[in-house]
Amino acid sequence: MPEISPQEFWFLVPEMVLATVGMALLVAGVIGQGISNRASEVVVLLGLGVTTILVVWTQGHAPQGEILAGMFVLDRYAFFWKLLFLLATALTSLLSYQFVERGRYRSAEFYSLLLLATTGMMLMASGVNLLSIWISLELMALSSYILAGYFKSELKSNEAALKYFILGALSSGILLYGISLIYGATGTLQLAVLAERLPVAIGESALLPSAGWLLLAIGLFFKVAAVPFHVWTPDVYVGAPTPVTGYLAVASKAASFAILVRIFYQGLGPLVVEWQLIVAAVAVLSMVWGNLAALTQQNVKRMLAYSSIAHAGYILIGVLAASELGLWALMFYLLTYSLFTLGAFGTVILLERREYAGEVYSDYAGLAQRSPYLAAMMLIFMLALTGIPPTGGFFGKVYLFAAAVESGWTWVALVGVLTSAISLYYYMGIALYMYFKESDATTPRPLHSPVLVGAITVCAVVTVLLGVIPGPLVEFAKASLLPLP
Amino acid sequence: MFDWVQQVPILSVICYLPLVGALFVMLVMKKENGAGIRRFATWVATFDFLLSLPLWFAYDRNAEAPLFQFRESASWIEALGARYEFGIDGIALLLVLMTTLLGVLAFLSSWSAIREREKEYYVFMLLLQTGMLGVFMAMDFFLFYVFWEVMLVPMYFLIGIWGGPRKLYAAIKFFLYTLVGSVLMLLGILALYFYNSTGIMGWGGLGDEATFSILRFHEIGSQIPPDLQFWIFLVFFVSFAIKVPMFPFHTWLPDAHVEAPTAGSVILAGVLLKMGTYGFVRFSLPILPDATWQLLPWLAALSIIGIIYGALVAMAQKDMKKLVAYSSVSHLGFVMLGLFALNTAGLNGSVLQMINHGLSTGALFLLVGVIYERRHTRMIADYGGLSAEMPVFATIFLIITMASIGLPTLNGFVGEFTILVGVFNRVWWWALMGAIGIVLGAAYMLWMYQRVFFGPITNPENKGLDDLNRRELLYLVPIVLLCFWIGLYPKPFFRVLEKPVEYVVQKVDQSYPGAALHEQPASEVHGD
Questions:
Q1: Contact: A428, B175; criterion CB under 8 Å
Q2: In degrees rounded to 5, what are phi and psi of residue A479?
Q3: Is the peptide bond before B245 cis (omega within 30 degrees of 0)?
Q4: What is the rounded CA–CA span in Å between residue A160 and residue A180?
Q5: Does B187 touch chain A (CB under 8 A)?
Q6: DSSP state letter for A1
Q7: Which chain A residue has its CA at the smallest distance from B144's CA?
Q8: Contact in structure between B245 and B304 (CB atoms under 8 Å)
Q9: What does the CA dihedral A192, A194, A195, A201 come to, rounded to 10 degrees?
Q10: Over B169-200, what HEC string results?
């Protein structure tokens, strides 16, 4: 039994604080009068703020190498992702304010689930043992299942939660089975040790360990919603309350990519030649299928769901490249993607009426005349999603395609640029309604919600900023790399 | 007297002034204040044009090296090696001046044409100006690409909001078509970038420091292996050929031109199309010489087809705007043929003809816009005998028609003649085909003119139409004057182009004297 010194637990203080705040909120919500929405929001934001400070502080004091019997590591890579998750959660909580208010849901429950999910993500980012990764993944997933079904009175939300739960449990099961096969073949769950033992194990008897890592990969592809493991995504994204959809599309996806990259680069590193072809195939399928399916959608949330499948494809190109450029391009892209995706979902929320209205393209008709400010910001998000300058989305895509060309996967980059070009059609579809059509009496007017508008503005401003001066974020990502396979 | 120009970052000022104006209109001005907005926007455009005039005077026409002047350089994305680099040579100088000038004229023409959602209109027009100027001024390939794509967004909105009956279709067709071309260009840029530094696929690399500098790419052009050159040329070709537009990538043009509002068509035809030809001159020819030579017969064939096909289809048109749109295809086919002569005469004529086409076709769209505002129809059949009712208008229309056809004393002749000289020296019967195009051009333009202006007034609605008012004269007369200036005394323009054109020819044609100055490894001597 390896020695664990009690001091090491201090390095998990940020996660512990966040989980405590989450659970405290839960308790506060059921004692006496409960806690108001506004108070919960403040607690959440304060909690996230304190956690961020603690993350930075522990990073400054972090030891090299693994802590807690090799379960976690506090490297710069984990640091990057933790900050991303905290930012995404803060934005999501601001986006959720209206939703909780209107539905008069128990705010404490909702936010506590959000915080617990984030805790799970933070632990995922720093996990270097397959078991700690899997357990943190489950923490995130279980909280997300409940969040997806939060519209208790809406059938679609119940459906979303059930589908998410069943398929999520299936994919976690596949992942776990893969992990167990690998353990059986190599005797270790530690990623660093795995990298040494796996090629040896495959050399001895190919079936068990190969099946193991293939199942592992499949489980991970389920989590990032790549084709052909994406089937749960459209229904879950449409049925879940829109702030939760935003959270799933952004934070959950980022966390899944964080562990995917770590497992592929550190655990399956020596097998890079084998898995590159698989990743290439999955990336191409995701880009093609995601974009083609989105072309025909009339429901904005469904379109955004398919588009996030396509984006998983683009991001997988960064994984495929297995180079420094590929890795920091991927990290840059996920950060800027978080901002403009949450901004887009925020705008959808502003137009929502009675839970599910405000989700079809025609509800955006004439928005440019009624609220030019909101329309301009939605235009920025749509341009960023397509990858047109001057937005962060453009630079993200350029870096990813450059990584593909550099590593000799030019044909994948070709698919990427062509599918990006055709994605213009459905993203600009919203701009078309906003600017080129007139509104009538049935078109919903946007809500008046300064909190929401403020959050969306932050997203828009940073998106454009990253589109003009991407340098600082690039440098930060470059400093947060993993060793390459 | 103009020394101060070299001390200030004049290019950035010219480029971003419209952007500042757009932000001001967007954030400060009220949308009800239509009159104020259009006046302010026009003043911004005028000021921008006036700011660009010193460039003409301060430009050193004798400079051999550095060829690109008014340089500005700043670090931008260190991680990639992309820099913020601005600079212009003679070719870019003329295009910048034409852009700022056409901008003012387009703004002036919009005063009466656009009365709805004026605030958004002028914001988009100003943003478009910045985008276009940035394309011509960029010396870093990545920066060029950013401006190239940015420019598409305002144009899309201009067509889609203030356009004709099929504006939605035309707008998205324009955007998608051009975007597909430009993303392919991105791959070409990345290929060049990686070949210059760490290497790409099976071709290895030059191991130089990673950069997107256009000058660096010019230097290494002849060192790129011919088969890599071929692929890069192809992706660039798709992108630029869509923009020009060359047959068979021209199908977006008629829809976009016809459905766009008048000022939109002027900018589209006057400036946006030139970006395609500029792309060939600045990138494809100097950086990819072997591929250019290899594909030359095909390129010339497509240009000639464009000339003749464009002219024949123009002849069949009943809508004036569509006729002018197809005439653009034909005229730019001429420009491309001149480029592919790959000699100084051809290239000089080609660049000058780019300017000429911008002026004359821009003027044609403005003129059609004038008559459209009066009668709300563009069908030739609805007119007839207008010269009696609107004599000044008829005169100006005639002058521009002659400029478009290539009548001596006007600008079109100088350009076309120079091109034909150059092309004749390359392959004589290409010049013959080009000359046929000139004849066809005269045919459809004169026939249109005759049906619209001459003869009796067949349609009573054409009686009593107002002739040109002062504002309309204000934006048409400068073009007429320029047409005569270039037509009678083109020397100042050729003087500006002399050295830049030589530079391009040296890069693309190894046998051209002076090419050896540029230290390229010995490769096969080209030329007939």
A1: yes
A2: -80, -5
A3: yes
A4: 29
A5: yes
A6: -
A7: A389
A8: no
A9: 160
A10: HHHHHHHHHHHHHHHHHHHHHHHHHHHHCCCC
Mutate to test the interface with B, among A410, A415, A439 (most CBs of B within 10 A): A410
**Residues of A whose CB is below 8 A from B142:** 398
CB contact under 8 A, B79 and A410: no
Residues B176-214: pLDDT tens digits? 999 999 999 999 999 999 888 887 777 777 778 888 888
The whole-model pTM stands at 0.91
A 374-413: CB under 8 A from B: 383, 388-390, 394-395, 398-399, 401-402, 405-406, 408, 410, 413
Residue A78: which of A14, A140, A134, A16 has the closest Cα? A14
Q: Is the backbone peptide bond immediately before B248 cis, with ω within 30 degrees of 0?
A: yes
Q: Which helix (H) or strand (E) holds B75?
A: strand B69-77
Dist CA A193 CA A196 (whole Å): 5
**Rounded-to-integer distance, Cα B437 and Cα A235, Å:** 59
Residue B176's region, left for phi above 0, alpha for psi from -120 to 50, else beta, is alpha
Contacts 24+ apart (CB under 8 A), B515-524: B518/B219, B520/B222, B520/B223, B521/B222, B521/B223, B523/B222, B523/B290
Q: What is the per-residue pLDDT across A109-155, written as a single tens digit (0 to 9) for each?
A: 899 999 999 999 999 999 999 999 999 999 999 999 999 988 888 88
Spatial separation of the C-alpha atoms in residues A74 and B467, rounded to whole Å: 78
Contact criterion met (CB < 8 Å) for A436 and B161: yes
CA distance B135 to B146: 8
Instruction: Pinpoint the alpha helices (H) of B221-343.
Output: 226-243, 252-259, 262-267, 273-279, 285-287, 289-315, 320-339
Whether B198 has its CB under 8 Å from any CB of chain A: the answer is yes
CB atoms within 10 A of CB B484: 15
Q: What are phi and psi of B392, to 5 degrees?
A: -65, -45
Quote the CA–CA distance of B513 and B492 in Å, as a whole number.
24
Task: Report residue B509 as tokens.
Answer: 């044609």
Tokens of A275: 């898995």
The label of the residue with tokens 């235009």 reads A379
Cβ burial, residue B398 (10 Å; 0-12/13-18/19+): middle
Comparing A3 with B474, the larger pLDDT belongs to B474
- A414 with B149: Cβ contact below 8 A: no
Confidence band for B65, pLDDT divided at 50, 70 and 90? low
Cα separation, B170 vs B309, whole angstroms? 22
Distance from CA of A318 to the nearest CA of B (A): 16
How many whole angstroms separate alpha carbon A401 and alpha carbon A186?
Answer: 36
Q: Which value does ipTM take for this structure? A: 0.89
Chain A and chain B share a number of CB contacts under 8 A equal to: 89
User: Are A367 and A379 contacting, i.e. CB atoms less than 8 angstroms apart?
Assistant: no
d(CA B244, CA B221): 23
Contact between chains at B190 and A328 (C-beta distance less than 8 A): no
Residue pair B435/B443 in contact (Cβ under 8 Å)? The answer is: no
d(CA A38, CA A28): 13
- For residues A320, A324, A325 and A327, what is the CA-based torsion angle, rounded to 10 degrees? 60
A425 with B172: Cβ contact below 8 A:
yes
The dihedrals phi and psi of A298, each to the nearest 5 degrees, come to -105, -20
Residues near A38 by beta carbon (within 8 Å), at least 6 away in sequence: none
The answer to whether B148 contacts chain A (CB < 8 Å) is no
Q: What is the dihedral of CA A459, A463, A465, A470, to 10 degrees?
A: 130
The number of CA neighbours under 13 Å toward the Cβ of A106 is 15
Name the closest residue on chain B to residue A384, using Cα atoms.
B150
Give the A window 147-206 contacts with B, CB below 8 Å: none
